Amino acid sequence: MDNMTKIILATTSPYRIEAFGFLGIPFEAEGSKIDESQIERKNPEELVRQLSKLKAEAVAKNHSDAIVIGMDSVGYFQGKILEKPKSSEETFQRLRLLSGKKYYFYTGVYMVKTSNRKTISKVVKDEIFIRKLSDSEINKYFEQDKESIYKTFAHGFDVKNKIGCSFVSKIVGSPNNVLRGIPLEILPEMLSKVGYNL
Questions:
Q1: pLDDT, tens digit, for every residue of 54-77?
Q2: What CA–CA distance (Å, rounded) separates 142 from 3?
């Protein structure tokens, strides 16, 4: 196994970058700047699979000997894909819609080793249960979220910080994925399969 190969996360997400650091291995982060609108938005699993691949391959073009990891996440509720909301009003309505219900959260992870073109792809699906929320609790979230952090989450709200951390009553699946958008539990095995052991 060659652990001298450089690892690059195809992301600028501070949450994913922080979480990957928990694995205790050296890595770099590089944004992919892809056009995400080119992928059909019907099946959430296929969407995150394709977008994570596009992100990784876009960065992989810049490196001859690296393991590049692309990731993408979306929510899914009653047949509708939930992506990053564009406004606080959209977020407010989404939280009202999800109040007292469960939805699904998908993250695709795609790895490519550029020296030999070995690839591996996985999709993680989690169930997220939201407790019953009052309008005042939702408004409290926006009062705390002065920098519009909600726009960086496929959920539409930050499940890790502020009052938003009290919105989720139960997670079935990967807590790391739901909280940070990166399913750390599957990464050691995926890295091993492309030739890198922790």
A1: 999 999 999 999 999 999 999 999
A2: 44
